[in-house]
Amino acid sequence: MARSSPLQRASVDKGSDHTQPFIQLDRLSKSFQEGMVERQVLREISATFTAGEFVVLLGQSGSGKSTLLNLISGIEQPTTGQVSINTVGLSALNERDRTLFRRDHIGFIFQFFNLIPTLTVLENITLPQELAGVSQIEVSKKAIALLKRVGLEDREDTFPDKLSGGQQQRVAIARALVHDPMLVLADEPTGNLDKETGKVVLDLLLELTRSAQKTLIMATHNPDIARCADRVLRMQDGQLVEETRSGQPS
Amino acid sequence: MTVAPAPRSSNRPLWRMAWRRFRQRSLQYVLCLLGVALGVAMMVSIDLANGSAQTAFELSTDAIAGRATHQIEALAPEGIDESIYGQIRQQVGLIPTAPIVDGYVLAPELGNQPMRLVGVDLFAEPPFRNYFAPQNQTVGLAGLQTFLTEPNAVVLPTDVAQRYQVALGDTLTLDLSGRQVPVTLVGTVQPESTTTRRALSSLIFADIATAQDILQMPGHLSHIDLIAESEADLGVVEALLPEGVRLETAAAQKNAVRQMTAAFRLNLTALSLLALVVGMFLIYNTVTFSVVQRRPLFGVLRCLGTTPSQLFTLIMGETAILGLLGSIAGLGLGIVLARSIVGLITQTINDFYFVVSVQQVAIPPLLLVKGLLIGVVSALLAALVPAIEAMRTSPQNILQRSSLENKVQQLLPWLFLSWVIITLVGIALLRVQAGLIVAFSGLFAIVLGSALLTPPVTTVLMKMVQPITRPLGVLGRLAPRDIVRSLSRTSVAIAALMVAVSVIVGVSIMVGSFRVTVIQWLDQTLQADIYVSPPSTTANRVLGQLDPTVVGELKRWSGLEDVVTYNDTEATVTAFTYGEDTLEIEQPIKLISAEGDVSHGQRPYAWRQNAVDPWPALNRGEGVIISEALILKANLTDPPTAITIESPQGLQVFPVLAVFYDYSSDQGVVILDNDPFIQLWGDQGVASMGLFTSPNKDVDGVVDDLRDRFQGRTDVVVQSTRSLRDGSLEIFDRTFAITQALRFLAVIVAFIGVLSALMSLQLERTREIGILRATGMTPQQLWWMTLLETGLMGTVAGFLAMPLGYVLAWILIYVINVRSFGWTLQMQLNPSYFWQAWLVAIAAALLAGIYPAWRLSRITVATAIREE
Amino acid sequence: MKRWLGWLVGIMLGLGLMGSPAWAAEQGTVEWLMPTDSPEFQKVTAPKKFTFPQDFGSHEDYQTEWWYYTGNLETESGRPFGYELTLFRRGLTPGLPDQTSSAWRSNQVYFSHFTLSDIQNQDFYPVERFNRGAADLAGAQVSPYRLWLDDWSIEENQPGQIQLHAQGPETEVNLQLSLTKPILQGDRGYSVKGPETGNASYYYSIVQQPTQGTVRVQEETYVVDGKSWTDHEFSTSALSQGTQGWDWFSLQLEDGAALMLYGLRLQDGSTTAESNGTYVTPEGKVLHLNREEYQIKVLERWTSPQSRTQYPAKWAISVPSLDLEMQVLPMINNQELLLSTTYWEGAIEIAGVQSQQKIHGKGYVELTGYDRDLNL
């Protein structure tokens, strides 16, 4: 590339080989200052994720799962260590460029759906693209298609507070995928849903990510979900432990 | 039988929680405190400054009156014939009496302030005043020698002498309308008490003979003080008084002065209260927010056994503390502010009412208590609604914020209805022909009523604005919706800003209209080419008279087509006659004795008998021309057929020939031909002259000739029409300087209101902002969104402020001004008043948005998302 | 000599303007510019020729001047009263004041004391007034003879007849005096007060003036008659060093004789050499008495409850050359004037023996310098 703005350097080749390391965590540590005490949440975590992989992060609440996801997305900065996504080192980017990187390449799904109450369902889905300056007409088409995929095509002008939890999370999934990110981060996406609804939502999420060969990293404490994963990592004492399970191809 | 113990409850845990919250959200509370403080400060400063001017005048009046119970005064401008004093002494020597000769002088060496030269007779003083009580008798006698026998010997208060570094034996100059009199300081006097000392600080004492010489009052006294122990004493004295000399109680003069400035002071106070009203919006906003935010907490507390009344107490207690702290800060600020505005107020009082010199801001404790009380009470009033809300928190159902907003949405029609009702009440109040306070209540009702209209109008406007902001993308959609969604919060900020900006619009229109009216009036009235007068001790009023030789010379000056002369005195109108009916009143007036019309018939009249030029009839002595203020201040609408004026020769009835506009005084003015004036009032002097040059003469040339002729004479001022007009406008602008200052203070309070409202909004929305940021909103986009929101709020406030400002201007011009000062103004609308105010609203809102936007752009996304 | 010396008038003036103690509630500090050149008044150094009525009026070339009227009166039923009306003049500068347009300009200050002694009720009523000698407020004129301060006046309303009027808050006198021939005191009216040159005054008295009229005490008015004594004295002088005060006696005997005596007291209680007296026989013959020719002995003393000052209250006087022995007794002990200055001046009665004949009489005594040393 002729020019080398951080943003361009941060761009990701979407056609990269799936077997290549896509995300690299290099001795990541994160600690929080709580009053006089420093609480270490993550200790020197190193891990690699390949493109198209579905990885489940298991762990008790407070074990640092969410923090790890925040570090990967650039929402939080590690105390020490490096996160690089497709060779782009996030720490080297400033706040604005990290936001732009996230906006272009990462989709986020939260436990509490976190839809914007003043925006309609459709507007919530188009939000990331619109923030990126894509024209509304262009992004609407994609969004409506996604809405259809999540089964809410008739609710596009509804405001989020009129939807059930499951429906809200389906909108959130659509929002996370609308800009076609290579990486989807989901933090307990079913944690706030009943078992039945949770299953429906999970299936939908897996279907949408796996079919598009997106990397999906999901934090959960539900071991059932782990069964569908390519890999399962367990957070313990701020460290990652790989769980080996039988009957799964690695 | 045992009595069941009353259920015990303690609020201590609640207070502890409140204190934690104070600490966490200190900025929020500091802003609220600042709002209260500014509101209270403005009110207190105006009160203090007004009070200081009044107190200074009363103190010096008291200092001069001493223990006098009554005063003997003359209706004639020249004062009382001094032989009356001799007669009283020789007839009723037992009744303590003291002669006083006083007048205003400027002392360049004493800060060029107007000072009151008081001529006393030390031999008559002891029963009245004892400032001259010497400690060392032999010294006293020798000092007396210079004081009594040396011409132009004066005594100054020690403080004044020290402040201006004049020592005994120094020569000072006293300026009496341009006439310079050198005087020698032969004594200093320092009363023990600071009150008396302050009272004396604008006085110069002299022997009565010296005062008569300096003030050129030979043979006359200003008044005679009297201590009457019984009605019998008064009867005896009264029997000795000739026609045109009357006995007044010592308090009468103070009352007259108090009444004279009452309207002026009330206007300023009302304006200062507006800031407090804006401050109340702020308190309401902060307290509501604190209640809404703590709703879950209150729900839990209710579950844990907190009673509703404890919650009510908590909210009101918090507010009381806030109000108290804010008010205390406001008092301090008010005192500081008062020091800077007291000069402005004093100037206006000197220009229009009476001469007073305020050396110090008097701080009466009662006034501070009043400020404190009003501050706390208005804070509590503002917190009443949210406190009741808090009380109603049910333990089970933790009301969500969204349901509050729903409630607001449901309230909208009711708010609209309330607005209609309150506005109607306001209109009714304004229509009642009652005092100024009622009129101001009407004005406040209309302003406050319009605040109720803010939520419905904002909702409608935000719907209307969406098609316009839509092209701005998602931000353009988010911003107006956020405003409506948080209507309970945003509308209060908008209302506060709207009220403040409408005050700007209203006052600007009023002052602007006033100015244009005055300019037109000056242009029509001042038709003479050249004006000659002595320089004035105060700017607006000519207190001295022209040297008669100058008058004679000017009347014979070649190249002049016409010469008109003016003189004036204070008098009292005692009755209005309407045909057969007589209405007894007591209205002090300025009586002008005119020889010729300075407007040469160009003057506009509000009413003329038979619609003809009244001057020929006036010249024939057939009646008087009266100012509209005289009628309007008496709460009348129609001109009387005749008025009765108290003259030194007894009551005189004059038919009314015309009613003219006059903006130079709010006391009422009566013009009388100079012949009957000289005959009745015995004053042949001329205070000012208007010269009309011959058509073929160059005005500037004549002015130069006159100036050459009177070169070196400090007691003659020759002015062209232009400079007189400019001088008058300068006074006008100075008069309204304080008004300008006040309205900007109101905007500052409103600005704090918007800032505080935005801060609370943003705090509430932290999590939402976190999601937006996580979803990919850049800090810059966040900036834009915040500023767009505040800009929209400012726009709405500005939009609403325009019609409200117009209404305010209308009320100020057609109700308040007419009732306060008796002035009819022509309303002049200038588009700039409106768009400038709109800009101010938007600018204030945008400025207020900067800090919250900056804070938001720096939030930690991860923390924000985690918050629930 | 008689009565006060000039500078004492000055003291009274200063104190008088200070306000009576009742006004002392709020005092202040007053600083005055001192006059740089002290005024040059004429001094009394030699006898002068007295001319009447011109010399009844004021002499403004001299700094100090006073006119004293005292008298002992009684009603038809014998109820006794005493009165005193004095006008003091003090010149601030000699000659005419600077001419200005104001009629108030004056260099003459007048003040006046008026007392009435109600002997029966043992009540004493002193009052004081001040004013300037201008604007018709106070003055002394020759023709017709008139002294006045406010509404207090002494004027010749018909030839040889003097009308005297004064009024206080509780008292009033309206009296008609018949003039008698003036008696020149000292050496032809030249009365020496001390050894220094110019320490002297011009002094004449008018004694045994028949007086009638009314006195009012509170609401009650009494028709009275009796005898009055006038002193008129003017000078520019001061007390000699060491003099503490003086005792002065004006005694009018029933046989028509009159005796004036005074003693200038020194610190040791003795009197100065200049102290002297005058005896006027019933026939009007004037005999001068020098210091050695009479003796005054204090028999009793009285202490004022108000000022705590101790005054003599009974005297034995003897004039051997006249074969005169008498006792003088205050008709009221408390005739103390607590005005701008404190002194005692009151009605007295006389009982004694002259040439084996019992004599009676009344008069006035003035006692100064008992409350403080006048020679400050």
SSE layout:
The complex is a heterotrimer of chains A (250), B (868) and C (376).
Chain A: H1 6-10, E1 21-34, E2 37-50, E3 54-58, H2 65-73, E4 80-85, E5 88-89, H3 95-105, E6 106-109, H4 121-131, H5 136-149, H6 165-177, E7 183-187, H7 195-211, E8 215-220, H8 223-226, E9 231-236, E10 239-243
Parallel strand pairs in A: 3-8, 3-9, 6-7, 7-8
Antiparallel strand pairs in A: 1-2, 1-4, 4-5, 9-10
Chain B: H1 12-24, H2 26-65, E1 70-74, E2 80-81, H3 83-91, E3 97-107, E4 113-120, H4 137-149, E5 153-157, H5 158-163, E6 171-176, E7 179-191, H6 194-200, E8 203-207, H7 208-214, E9 220-221, E10 223-226, H8 231-240, E11 245-249, H9 250-293, H10 295-303, H11 308-352, H12 365-391, H13 401-431, H14 436-469, H15 474-485, H16 487-525, E12 530-533, H17 548-555, E13 560-578, E14 581-595, E15 605-608, H18 615-619, E16 624-627, H19 628-633, E17 642-647, E18 650-660, E19 669-673, H20 674-681, E20 688-693, H21 699-709, E21 717-720, H22 721-735, H23 737-764, H24 766-775, H25 779-821, H26 831-857, H27 861-866
Parallel strand pairs in B: 4-8, 5-7, 14-19, 16-18
Antiparallel strand pairs in B: 1-10, 1-11, 2-9, 3-4, 3-10, 5-8, 6-7, 12-20, 12-21, 13-14, 13-17, 13-20, 15-18, 16-19, 17-18
Helix pairs in contact in B: 1-2, 2-6, 2-9, 2-11, 2-12, 2-23, 9-12, 9-14, 9-16, 9-23, 11-12, 13-14, 14-15, 14-16, 14-25, 15-16, 15-25, 16-22, 16-23, 16-25, 16-26, 23-26, 25-26
Chain C: H1 6-18, E1 28-32, E2 64-75, E3 80-91, E4 108-118, E5 123-132, E6 138-141, E7 146-149, E8 152-158, E9 161-167, E10 171-178, E11 183-184, E12 190-192, E13 200-217, E14 220-235, E15 243-253, E16 258-266, E17 276-280, E18 286-290, E19 295-303, E20 310-319, E21 324-330, E22 336-338, E23 342-354, E24 357-367
Antiparallel strand pairs in C: 2-3, 2-14, 3-4, 4-5, 6-7, 7-8, 8-9, 9-10, 10-13, 11-13, 12-13, 13-14, 15-16, 15-24, 16-17, 17-18, 19-20, 20-21, 21-23, 22-23, 23-24
